[in-house]
Specification:
The chain is of the alpha/beta class. It has nine helices and four strands, in the order αβααβαβαβαααα. The protein has two domains: 119 residues, P-loop containing nucleotide triphosphate hydrolases (Rossmann fold); 69 residues, Helicase, Ruva Protein, domain 3. It has a four-stranded parallel sheet with strand order 2-3-1-4, sandwiched between helices. α3 runs parallel beside α4, α6 packs parallel to α8 and α8 crosses α9.
C-alpha cells in the first residue's frame, strides 16, 4: 500500500521554526538569523534562489524581534527615521531605490538597530550603481543558501503542496524529484502548474498525470 503523507493542510504559507527544514551537519541558519549578536555588524543579507527559504527565515526573525517587513516599493524618506529606530526586514532588495537604502543603512547603524535583507543572487552580483551602497552591502554579514539536496527539494516541494492544499503521495514525490531540474524555482514552478492543471481537469495528482505535465511544459 502506498503511504499518503498525512499533514494538516492550510490555505496560507505557514512560517514556523518547526516547519523550517534544516540539513544535517553544519551550522543551522536559525542560529545565525535569529542571533544578531553573531552577525558582526547590524546588517545581515540572506541570499539564495527563489523558494530556498529566505522569506521563511525573515518571517521567523520578524516574529522573534517584532520588527516590520517593508515592501521595497513602499520604502520612502518619511519612513526612514522610524525604521532606523526599530530596525526592519526588506524581502528582496533587487531594483530598490539605492539612495533610500543607503540612508536606511547609515541611520540604522547610527541608532544601533538591526536590518535584515534578502536577495536572490550573490551580493557581489547585485546591480548597484551607487558605489557607497555597494560598499556597505559587501561589508555586511551574508548567509548564502546553497544549492538544494534531494531532502531539501523534497521538503520545499511538500511545503508548497501543503500551502496549496494539495495532497500528494510519497511515490509521486519521489517520481518528481528524480525528473525535475535541481533547483527550488523548478520545483515551485512545477507545483504551481500541477495545482492549476489538476484543478482545471479535476484530476488527482498521480504519476501518469505528472508525466503528462512534464511532457507538456518546459520545467
Amino acid at each position: 500500500m502506498i503511504k499518503q503523507l498525512g499533514i494538516d493542510y492550510s490555505s496560507e504559507p505557514v512560517y514556523r521554526i518547526d516547519n523550517f527544514y534544516i540539513e544535517d551537519g553544519g551550522i543551522s541558519p536559525l542560529d545565525i538569523v535569529l542571533n544578531p549578536k553573531s552577525w558582526g555588524s547590524n546588517l545581515l543579507i540572506i541570499s539564495g534562489e527563489k523558494g530556498s527559504g529566505k522569506t521563511h527565515l525573515s518571517n521567523l526573525y520578524v516574529d522573534k524581534f517584532n520588527v516590520p517587513i517593508v515592501a521595497k516599493e513602499c520604502l520612502n524618506f518619511d519612513m526612514l527615521e522610524s525604521l532606523s529606530l526599530t530596525g526592519c526586514v526588506i524581502d528582496d532588495i533587487n531594483d530598490i531605490d539605492e539612495k533610500l537604502l543607503f540612508h536606511l543603512i547609515n541611520m540604522s547603524k547610527k541608532y544601533g538597530s538591526n536590518l535584515l535583507f534578502t536577495v536572490d543572487k550573490k551580493v557581489k552580483d547585485i546591480d548597484i550603481k551607487l558605489p557607497d551602497l555597494k560598499s556597505r552591502l559587501l561589508q555586511a554579514m551574508v548567509y548564502n543558501i546553497e544549492k538544494p539536496s534531494d531532502s531539501s527539494l523534497h521538503f520545499v516541494m511538500l511545503k508548497n503542496f501543503i500551502d496549496k492544499q494539495l495532497r500528494i503521495k510519497s511515490d509521486v514525490m519521489s517520481y518528481i524529484i528524480e525528473r525535475t531540474p535541481r533547483s527550488y524555482s523548478s520545483v515551485i514552478k512545477l507545483v504551481d502548474i500541477l495545482d492549476k492543471e489538476s484543478l482545471a481537469c479535476s484530476n488527482e495528482i498521480t504519476i501518469p498525470f505528472v508525466r503528462k505535465i512534464l511532457q507538456e511544459y518546459d520545467i
